[in-house]
Automatic annotation (TrEMBL):
Classification via CDD domains: PP2Cc
InterPro entries the UniProt entry points to: PP2C, PPM-type-like_dom_sf, PPM-type_phosphatase-like_dom
Organism: Perkinsus marinus (strain ATCC 50983 / TXsc)
GO molecular function, one term: protein serine/threonine phosphatase activity
Domain of life from the UniProt record: Eukaryota
Domain PPM-type phosphatase: 1-112
UniProt-recorded name of the protein: Protein phosphatase 2c, putative
Length: 115
């Protein structure tokens, strides 16, 4: 299918759509995408050291524990950028060794105050 002809339609497998939410994308609702984000609130404590926000490109091949272990290596260096890059690198390597394609991979790490 030429790129100019590609589009997503309900009940069709191609070209494919692997997402459940797209912030504010009300047009994609016809294909089953939810435009409204899921929001939850969590209280933090002094024991909480960081927050990781990542796409399914990370979570498809890394467990919560693996991501925490990777990020924790950079906590004392106070380098959230290096931590996020390390997570993306590890997830990318796992995609490359297990799949024919590599999904989009996004990771944001926020180190919390009060160490």
């Amino acid at each position: 299918m030429p790129l100019s002809d590609s589009s997503v339609h309900p009940s069709q497998d191609l070209p494919g759509l692997a997402m459940s939410r797209a912030f504010g994308d009300t047009i994609a609702a016809s294909a089953g995408v939810i435009a409204e984000p899921e929001i939850s609130k969590h209280d933090t404590s002094n024991k909480d050291k960081f927050i990781v926000i990542a796409s399914d490109g990370v979570w498809d091949f890394m467990s919560n524990e693996e991501v925490v272990h990777t990020v924790a290596k950079y906590y004392n260096q106070e380098s959230s950028r290096k931590a996020a890059r390390a997570v993306v690198k590890e997830a990318s390597e796992r995609w490359e060794s297990n799949e024919d394609v590599v999904d989009d991979i996004t990771c944001v790490v926020v180190f919390l105050q009060g160490k």
